[in-house]
Amino acid sequence: MKSLQYPTRLPCGNRVLDLAQPQVMGILNVTPDSFSDGGRFSGRDAALRHAAEMVAAGATLIDVGGESTRPGARAVSPAEELERVAPVVEAIARELDVVISLDTSTPAVMREGARLGAGMINDVRALRRDGALNAAADTGLPVCLMHMLGEPGNMQQDPRYGNVVQEVRDFLAERMQACEAAGIPVDRVILDPGFGFAKTLAHNLSLFKHMEALHELGRPLLVGVSRKSMIGQALGREVHQRLYGSLALAALAVAKGACILRVHDVAETVDTVRMVAAVQAAE
Asked: What is the DSSP string of 188-204?
């Protein structure tokens, strides 16, 4: 594993995340159209039950999203997104001991979610929406910046790179600079290579193989590959047949120094992470 270049304690609102060991982030989509579990947890009570199950299985973060970012997903209004997300964030903050991550690009959701108890902002657009940088800065929360070209609706329309690893690295470095200029200190930044976002299978595999290059940026890495199309394309598996491929990539990600794994299958991933840690801790 890559030796850490940053403090391992990350303040997340009223909780602290320990990045000395890899952490598992459970995915909670409160949307009708997410690629894997759209519609299953769109009600507050169902969402809270699923969040509680993931926490019991070992998740230390719950990533709540109210706008699908699958390829071809439709945009939703800030009011609609907030209506989906706010009751769930409020309920989880009240009932569960877990860091709540807001999977959002919307300034209004960032501000209200932080007020209701969220501890992190996870933005697939890397705070590029109008007002997002200022909103994120005002919350005082850590932010996860993800690499993506274009928008979810068009990102898979012939993505091209000269050197995908270098271009992802340069993009994330530029967004870190934008954060710093907006008043978000570098020690509040997490980076996500954006697997599956504006990338072909060849791009995804090359980026994963050479992920260590992103450690040059000196920030924790979040990896989200759970059930994604890169697994389906590599193994010929449908969405709900991708557990083993997801776990293989989780183990590789930890070995390559990832600090946070964003997953659907929490219990299985927690076992994978613990097994890798046991081997790495051996004499």
From this structure: GEEEE--TTSS--HHHH
